[in-house]
Each structure stands twice: as C-alpha cells, then as structure tokens.
Amino acid sequence: MPEFLAETYTPREVLDTAAPRAGDLARAAAHASRSGAPVRFLGAIIVPGEETVFWLYLAPTAEAVRAAMTAAGLDPERITPAATLRPPPTARPGGGAPAAGLPPPSKTH
Q: In this structure, are residues 55 and 73 in contact, taking their beta carbons and an 8 Å threshold?
C-alpha cells in the first residue's frame, strides 16, 4: 500500500497546546478506515521554526488520508505520495546503521 506525506500549517503558539496526539490520529485513521479504505497513521515530524507539521500515512489514496485527517480535526495543505527509507533489518543494535565511512562496530563475546 502506498505511503503519503501530508503537510499542515500550525502556528507556533498552537503547536504545544492544540496539536493532535499520535493516539488521536491513529484512532481517526482507524475510524476513516471503516468506510472501506484502510488508513494507518505512521508518524509525524513537527518543524516549529517553519510552523509546519509533516504527517506520514499508509493508505490506498490521498483522498483516504484527507478523510482520516479531517476526522482528526486537521486540514492538510497538501498530500503527496512518499517513500520512507528505513535502516536495513541487520542494522547495529540501538537502531541505527553505521555512520558513513566508519566500519561497523566489532562484535565482542
């Protein structure tokens, strides 16, 4: 299923007090999915200096994302197809890949 990146404008003074919480967004996505289009909220990135929030969803269409966001009380400026890059499953413990140009950590037993 495709991923979509949605963008909302959120004034700086509102970011801390009125930004929807992840659980609210996940519930709104689940509620929107009941109409037949499965939508899953994957996460968000808040950029306070730009007064912008980027929302990542897994959904069949941009329209399904818009419905989920509207159900959560959000009004996206735009929604575009996206691709997420994640570290390979064999990444080092702690969740990250080795830094560029550095050898992987040695294994000690």
A: no
Residues in the chain: 109
Question: Domain of 50: which CATH number?
Answer: 3.30.70.3090
94 part of a folded domain = no
Q: What is the pLDDT of residues 36-50, one digit of tens each?
A: 678 888 888 888 889
CA distance 108 to 29: 44
Burial of 57 (0-12, 13-18, 19+ CB in 10 A): buried
Res. 93: pLDDT tops 70:
no
Say whether pLDDT at 98 is over 90: no
